[in-house]
């Protein structure tokens, strides 16, 4: 047996819920666990005696209830204490008093009976459960399904494609015609969106798939709330050679590595594979490796999701030959993908979801929305026209939005960007015009997802309001002017959003704060003539 210094067990360990954590490297100390788990040392017990040849274990205590213990256990299950380790920790929640029962069935240590738990340790404790693998495989599959839908760079940048030529002509036929200015008509909406999605030296394309034009429709990516920037994707056959690694023996090896790397990214920790990939990508794009931000990786082959800081439009426009450079840097290269909105975004004119289109009456209607016992008022926006976005089917379940007043519905709210400034644009390269700040900032949200508020009066997060009248009359909703057959007209623009009931802080009756951007989802654009 190997001994650690004796750490007295707090008296609360048998009065509260606690967790047995296994799969720890030999020699793990309270200090190691405190740093890794961000938990007070007073809530950690490392048993006095541990076994040779197997991973160590410890106790985490002082959880007030089962839910709190389960949330902590779910957060840390499957995490490796050491980079690139093949051993992953497993957390098992135990009820109050269970430690006493375990002591009665095993040996005790004369030095400290309450800490001797070697008898409770089994080899199965350090094995990753099949359930954990299935959960991780599901997460990886979701990432794969989303990012694999991105177009290949070679396809997206092919300017000679017949479909691109047809889309260019179709776009001209729409934008060269002065819109009616009637807010409910599609030509008006297209002109507003052309302004809204306009990039510097770049024009979006419209097309009609019913006419046989086959392009990558970017509308499904307009609401990528979890994405802070528009990413690229590098697809490799495997992780072989990255960070000095040998060939992975099985697909599960790449799954383990992906999980470990994603954990390092989450905790903002360095990892040799991350450093190696960033250096190679920097070489391919001709930028400093510090400008490469690895967002996530996923298995099923081995794929890397990344962004490039301060991405100049010239880099995007000259990206056609980057695949050749990537092949030189990565021997396992398969393909490279680009976010649909990053290079000549194209939109099927049917990307508006007609089921979500609606003109609201001048009188507000109020409905109760949310989980039973926790509902909140949904005040419809009086006098606004909504263009619904195709969001149903994008997420695993559609209960957050439909059917209306389902118990799983998220709260409804509104988000405006009328007071936007260049600093609000999330580092994007979109053109900035203070007169059109509302539109430009909406485009930034469309393309990059919601960003945290620049001025956080009620704490960090995304700010929104359940009160459309208050928000619509505030400085947070601006207006854009377009030329119409009826003369120049000005239109206000804001988002209609759904907010996770478990992820919102209702700071005041008019101001809500959503700390995490993935807990807020836009499902419609609201337009109103001023």
UniProtKB/TrEMBL annotation:
Residues 98-117 are annotated as: Disordered. Residues 99-117 have a biased composition (Polar residues). It comes from the Eukaryota. This is Uncharacterized protein. It comes from Adineta steineri.
């Amino acid at each position: 047996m190997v001994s650690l210094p004796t750490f007295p067990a707090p008296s609360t360990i048998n009065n509260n819920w606690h967790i047995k954590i296994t799969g720890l490297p030999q020699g793990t100390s309270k200090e190691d666990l405190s740093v890794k788990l961000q938990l007070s040392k007073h809530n950690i017990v490392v048993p006095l005696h541990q076994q040779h040849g197997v991973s160590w274990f410890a106790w985490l205590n002082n959880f007030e209830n089962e839910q709190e213990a389960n949330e902590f256990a779910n957060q840390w299950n499957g995490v490796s204490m050491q980079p690139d380790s093949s051993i992953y920790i497993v957390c098992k929640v135990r009820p109050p008093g269970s430690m006493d029962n375990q002591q009665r069935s095993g040996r005790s240590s004369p030095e400290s009976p309450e800490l001797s738990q070697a008898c409770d340790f089994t080899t199965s404790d350090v094995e990753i459960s099949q359930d954990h693998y299935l959960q991780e495989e599901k997460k990886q599959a979701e990432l794969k399904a989303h990012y694999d839908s991105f177009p290949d760079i070679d396809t997206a940048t092919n300017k000679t494609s017949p479909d691109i030529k047809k889309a260019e002509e179709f776009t001209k036929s729409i934008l060269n015609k002065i819109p009616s200015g009637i807010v409910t008509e599609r030509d008006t909406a297209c002109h507003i969106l052309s302004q809204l999605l306009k990039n510097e030296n770049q024009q979006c394309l419209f097309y009609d798939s019913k006419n046989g034009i086959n392009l990558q429709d970017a509308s499904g990516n307009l609401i990528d709330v979890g994405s802070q920037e528009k990413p690229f994707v590098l697809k490799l056959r495997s992780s072989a050679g990255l960070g000095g690694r040998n060939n992975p023996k099985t697909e599960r090896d790449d799954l383990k590595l992906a999980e470990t790397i994603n954990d390092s990214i989450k905790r903002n920790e360095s990892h040799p594979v991350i450093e190696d990939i960033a250096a190679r990508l920097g070489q391919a794009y001709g930028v400093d490796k510090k400008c490469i931000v690895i967002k996530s990786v996923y298995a099923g082959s081995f794929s890397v999701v990344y962004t490039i800081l301060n991405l100049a439009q010239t880099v995007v426009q000259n990206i056609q030959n980057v695949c050749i450079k990537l092949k030189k840097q990565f021997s396992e290269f398969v393909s490279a993908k680009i976010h649909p909105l990053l290079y000549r975004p194209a939109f099927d004119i049917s990307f508006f979801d007609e089921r979500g289109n609606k003109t609201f009456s001048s009188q507000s209607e109020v409905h109760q929305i949310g989980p039973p016992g926790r509902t909140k008022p949904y005040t419809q926006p009086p006098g606004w026209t909504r263009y619904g976005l195709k969001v149903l089917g994008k997420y695993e379940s559609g209960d957050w939005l439909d059917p209306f007043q389902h118990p799983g519905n998220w709260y409804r709210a509104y988000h405006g960007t009328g007071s936007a400034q260049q600093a609000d644009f999330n580092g994007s390269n979109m053109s900035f015009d203070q007169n059109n700040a509302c539109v430009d900032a909406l485009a930034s949200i469309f393309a990059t997802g919601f960003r945290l508020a620049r001025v956080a009066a009620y704490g960090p997060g995304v700010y929104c309001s359940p009160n459309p009248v208050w928000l619509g009359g505030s400085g947070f909703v601006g207006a854009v002017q377009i030329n119409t057959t009826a003369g120049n007209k000005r239109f206000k623009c804001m988002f209609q959003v759904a907010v996770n009931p478990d992820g919102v802080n209702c700071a005041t009756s008019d101001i809500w704060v959503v700390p995490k951007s993935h807990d807020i989802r836009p499902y419609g654009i609201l337009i109103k003539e001023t």
